[in-house]
């Protein structure tokens, strides 16, 4: 039965590798949604008071809500609902829809507040692939590229697993009706009447059925407008008995409107396949995947389909360049990590081969492979994907998964060398039961102590919890399975393999000589001064005191900044994003020109493969952009430059080094234009609004804005290493308001709505209706507008006429006056309180935002930015906003929450380990001795980080937590053996030395095995902290455990014996 179960386990593991979806990062269930509420014509303050604030209060009542944000802009409220991590998407969105639409009566009625629009967002809205279409042909413009892209959207949507497919940067194609104001006046028409005529002419009705020839024939009344020609030939009136056509008073064209966005593609000469002219117009197709589908399969299928469509849907001369392929990177990462998993397993098997023999190595290797196979299947069943974190969990676990098998095999190997009581050779059937029984209890206990140390990490809250959750869960499940395999499969394999080579029968004398081997002599020499003699007790005391001193000294390395604390280090990615914010009021052409300057500088960077510019819109978002809501970035003053780097295997510098080198040069270019230019890297872990965020609260929003500006210009700007400084405060921009003279309008019988419609047509155009062209994927609007030259001239706008009640046309100049004032800046709220944000990044020598933040905190101690005293909060929003206060957020908040939760998990693990050991040894003091090596790990961990100039990160903390369980295993083996020897009547001092000599080999083997497993993740930028903690922590603490724990236990037993003797 055992071999059948083993084969089934291997097959299940193989199946899991084949069917488990591959992704680069873990799937984090982040449910968020935006609620858009239009309020046409209202100022930001009116939108805040009449829409945003009451709706915030209702949304905050929803179960599972973490934060409610709002931005109140002139004419629009945008509310963002962020749920707690792990809240299921579908029920959460149902609750949101119910709350929004069942409380519309809270919104003011009859003043122009529109119907709320709910737009949910989640991790699966992040495109896994982006394909940029561009051409060197000057006759192929962005409009033609957009037509090709829209055709491809429909074709690619047929690929299984694809979700949302959309085009970025496509110019808006419309049927433009450019009005001739002179002809309109000559024919006694107004723009509003033309809009009504277009709407009336584009109505179709199902008129019913009529019976003809004994058959029911459905009747449809009318036909939709289908082309620009039909629109141009539309009869809008009569003139002298002749029909008056729309083309008589306007120019009708089917083409792109005035540009509201630009997109282009570029690449350095001689690198990749870029345009001959440096940059070329482009559009980008973004492709997202369905939840649970395999990203690598989808992107591979899309790439294959694009190759098939070249020359068909993709005409010759149009290039389709893949500018994002997360599926490929996920597959490459998974393959590389699986290879590391194989190498780690092989290295552990080789270790056992040299230490015990080739048959023992086969037994241990089989146990490890079987454990990994079953663990992979269990991981798939639990819903995890094959991603970097889950695979790193298995690689890290190799060293501890093999522990149980090593301990069992080594003890069988040792018992085989011990003759029976009658001096004869014992058979394996006689040896295996007592050998397994001897270490079975300690092994079971040690396995559960490791699980007790790891499992509490699965309950870490926030984004970091689900991101790192595969590590504790996969490792714990693997440990449990490895225990079962070590107690079931390993003895069976040992019976089949170890009995095939001979063992000489040793006499008692020979066995005694074996015990007096070099390990016994070594430990006798090391331990005797602390066990024997009058000064042994004093020496033990000095040894224990020195250990305490070393622990404190190692911990102080962080206080002296010899070890830098950081949430997570940056990974070596293949992309960098440059986010541009021009001053409010900047034109699209100005933004695009700045992007061109930035691109010219980026073009000089030797590691750049290609780049895409997006003016007036956002680049395809990643997970960072999802959380920061970059998808909402639009307008003439915003732009993105998406930079792709050559493969990391073909460059020397990591992406973080490249970004740091680019930042000062690009920021200087931005400053010349008064723009904010930020170099945004893909964060290694959960993203935040910015690495450094100061939230300013207070009684008046104007005061909050002043303080935010003062903080940015003073405290932030004057702190060394602080870069990419920006605020949520928008710069003042001029605004013109055309104010209706209501008295005169009432006398002429002109409604304000009529005037507003005419102004909208004159200034930016108005979509009167739509044309559905069979060749176009999307309906095209029929847009009424003035010529561009008239839109720019105020007098031409005021010359537009509207119809009065008396039937005459009245120019707007007789009805409105022009008032000039500053544009209302956006008003931000967070959880019901007005807030102004100051955002920045850290690029100093320490490269950790925490140090920059605390440097600013120190400067603000007695400072009064903008003349205001400031309180500072680090954990929660200020309870009292009658005065001005700062709440620090960003990476600090997630670092605090993560390390707080990990600290709680660490403490919970310690308590569980203590209770397990108490239950086993029936003592309250012995567990304290067994757990004593846990703090000794600091002696290895902190100096190890300092030695390798590595930051102490969240993964380093995970390594320390895992060390607690690993090191306690060694203590249990030692203490249990001392108890067994003492129970046989062996003197306590000799029992201590024997325990060190006999258990040193399995302890060293398991320690080196864990270090070997960690060695294979040492080169990963994110997980090297975990590797350093394990390698240095195990190395130092294992050596110290073999000395300190037996001596500490000896001291406890000796003191107990002396006390009992005194009592007697």
UniProtKB/TrEMBL annotation:
One example GO MF annotation: xenobiotic transmembrane transporter activity
Pfam families recorded: ACR_tran
InterPro entries from the UniProt entry: AcrB_DN_DC_subdom (IPR027463), Acrflvin-R (IPR001036)
Superkingdom of the organism of origin: Bacteria
Organism, as annotated: Marilutibacter maris
Name under which the protein is recorded: Multidrug transporter AcrB
Residues passing through the membrane, by range: 337-356, 363-383, 389-409, 444-465, 471-493, 542-565, 903-921, 928-948, 954-975, 996-1018, 1030-1050
Keywords: Membrane, Transmembrane, Transmembrane helix
GO cellular component terms, semicolon-separated: plasma membrane
């Amino acid at each position: 039965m055992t071999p059948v179960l083993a084969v089934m386990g291997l097959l299940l593991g193989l199946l899991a590798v084949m069917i488990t979806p591959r992704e680069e990062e873990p799937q984090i269930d982040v449910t968020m949604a935006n609620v858009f509420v239009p309020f046409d014509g209202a100022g930001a303050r009116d939108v805040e008071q009449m829409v945003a604030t009451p709706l915030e209060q209702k949304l905050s009542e929803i179960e599972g809500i973490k934060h409610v944000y709002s931005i109140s802009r002139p004419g629009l409220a945008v509310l963002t609902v962020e749920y707690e991590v792990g809240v299921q998407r579908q029920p959460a969105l149902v609750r949101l829809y119910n709350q929004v639409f069942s409380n519309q009566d809270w919104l003011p009625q009859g003043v122009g507040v529109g119907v709320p629009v709910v737009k949910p967002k989640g991790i699966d809205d992040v495109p896994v692939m982006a394909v940029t279409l561009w051409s060197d042909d000057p006759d192929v413009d962005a409009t033609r590229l957009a037509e090709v892209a829209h055709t491809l959207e429909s074709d690619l949507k047929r690929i299984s697993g694809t979700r949302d497919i959309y085009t970025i940067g496509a110019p808006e194609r419309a049927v433009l009706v450019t009005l001739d104001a002179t002809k309109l006046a000559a024919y006694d028409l107004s723009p509003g009447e033309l809009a009504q005529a277009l709407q009336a002419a584009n109505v179709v009705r199902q008129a019913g059925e009529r019976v003809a020839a004994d058959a029911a024939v459905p009747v449809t009344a009318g036909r939709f407008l289908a082309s620009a020609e039909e629109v141009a030939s539309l009869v809008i009136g009569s003139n002298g008995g002749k029909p008056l056509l729309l083309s008589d008073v306007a120019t009708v064209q089917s083409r792109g409107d005035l540009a509201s966005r630009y997109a282009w593609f570029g690449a350095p000469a001689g690198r990749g396949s870029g345009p001959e002219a440096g940059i070329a117009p482009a559009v980008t197709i973004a492709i997202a995947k369905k939840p649970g589908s395999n990203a690598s399969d989808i992107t591979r299928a899309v790439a294959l389909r694009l190759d098939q469509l070249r020359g068909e849907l993709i005409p010759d001369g149009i290039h389709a360049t893949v500018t994002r392929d997360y599926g490929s990177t996920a597959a490459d990462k998974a393959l590389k990590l699986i290879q590391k998993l194989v190498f780690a397993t092989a290295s552990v098997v080789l270790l056992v081969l040299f230490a015990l023999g080739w048959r023992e190595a086969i037994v241990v290797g089989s146990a490890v492979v079987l454990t990994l196979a079953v663990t992979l299947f269990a991981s798939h069943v639990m819903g995890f994907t094959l991603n970097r974190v889950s695979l790193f969990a298995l690689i890290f676990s190799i060293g501890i998964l093999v522990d149980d098998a090593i301990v069992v095999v080594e003890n069988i190997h040792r018992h085989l060398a011990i003759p029976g009581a009658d001096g004869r050779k014992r058979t394996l059937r006689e040896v295996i039961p007592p050998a397994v029984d001897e270490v079975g209890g300690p092994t079971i206990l040690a396995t559960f102590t490791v699980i007790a140390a790891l499992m509490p990490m699965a309950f870490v809250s926030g984004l970091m919890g689900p991101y790192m959750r595969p590590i504790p869960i996969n490792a714990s499940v693997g440990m449990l399975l490895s225990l079962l395999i070590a107690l079931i499969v390993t003895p069976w394999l040992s019976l089949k393999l170890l009995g095939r080579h001979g063992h000489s029968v040793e006499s008692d004398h020979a066995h005694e000589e074996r015990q007096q081997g070099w390990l016994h002599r070594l430990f006798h020499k090391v331990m005797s001064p602390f066990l024997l003699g009058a000064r042994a007790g004093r020496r033990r005391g000095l040894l224990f005191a020195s250990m305490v001193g070393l622990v404190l000294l190692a911990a102080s390395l962080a206080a002296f900044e010899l070890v830098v604390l950081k949430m997570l280090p940056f990974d070596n990615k293949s992309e960098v994003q440059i986010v541009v914010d021009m001053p409010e009021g900047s034109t699209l052409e100005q933004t695009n020109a700045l992007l061109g300057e930035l691109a010219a500088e980026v073009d000089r960077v030797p590691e750049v493969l290609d780049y895409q510019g997006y003016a007036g819109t956002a680049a395809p978002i990643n997970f960072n952009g999802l959380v920061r809501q970059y998808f909402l970035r639009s307008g003439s003053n915003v732009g993105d430059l998406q930079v792709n780097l050559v493969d990391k295997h073909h460059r020397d510098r990591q992406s973080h080094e490249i970004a740091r080198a680019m930042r000062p040069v690009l920021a200087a270019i931005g400053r010349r234009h008064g723009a904010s230019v930020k170099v945004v890297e893909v964060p290694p872990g959960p993203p935040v609004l910015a690495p450094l965020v100061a939230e300013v609260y207070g009684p008046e929003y104007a005061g909050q804005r002043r303080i935010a500006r003062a903080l940015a210009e003073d405290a932030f700007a004057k702190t060394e290493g602080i870069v990419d400084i920006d605020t949520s405060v928008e710069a003042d921009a001029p605004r013109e308001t055309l104010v209706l003279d209501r008295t005169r309008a009432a006398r002429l019988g002109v409604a304000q709505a009529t005037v507003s419609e005419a102004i909208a047509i004159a200034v930016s155009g108005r979509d009167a209706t739509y044309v559905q062209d069979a060749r176009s994927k999307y309906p095209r609007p029929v847009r009424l507008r003035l010529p561009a030259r008239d839109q720019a001239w105020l007098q031409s706008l005021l010359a537009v006429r509207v119809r009065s009640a008396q039937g005459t046309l009245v120019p707007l100049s007789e009805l409105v006056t022009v008032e000039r004032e500053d544009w209302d800046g956006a008003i931000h709220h967070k959880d019901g309180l007005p807030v102004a944000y100051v955002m920045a990044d850290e690029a100093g020598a320490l490269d950790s935002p925490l140090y920059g933040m605390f440097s600013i905190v120190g400067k603000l101690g007695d400072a009064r930015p903008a003349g205001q005293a400031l309180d500072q909060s680090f954990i929660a929003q200020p309870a009292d906003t009658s005065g001005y206060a700062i709440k620090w957020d960003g990476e600090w908040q997630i670092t605090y929450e993560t390390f707080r939760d990990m600290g709680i998990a660490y403490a919970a693990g310690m308590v569980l380990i203590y209770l397990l050991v108490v239950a086993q040894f029936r003592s309250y003091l012995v567990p304290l001795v067994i757990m004593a090596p846990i703090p000794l790990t600091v002696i290895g961990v902190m100096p190890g980080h300092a030695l390798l100039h590595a930051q102490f990160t969240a993964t380093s903390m995970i390594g320390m937590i895992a060390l607690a369980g690993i090191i306690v295993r060694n203590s249990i083996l030692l203490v249990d053996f001392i108890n067994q020897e003492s129970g046989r009547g062996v003197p306590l001092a000799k029992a201590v030395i024997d325990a060190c000599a006999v258990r040193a080999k399995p302890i060293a083997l398991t320690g080196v095995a864990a270090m070997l497993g960690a060695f294979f993740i040492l080169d990963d930028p994110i997980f090297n902290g975990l590797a350093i903690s394990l390698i240095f922590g195990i190395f130092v603490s294992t050596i110290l455990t073999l000395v300190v724990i037996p001596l500490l236990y000896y001291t406890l037993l000796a003191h107990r014996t002396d006390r009992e003797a005194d009592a007697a």
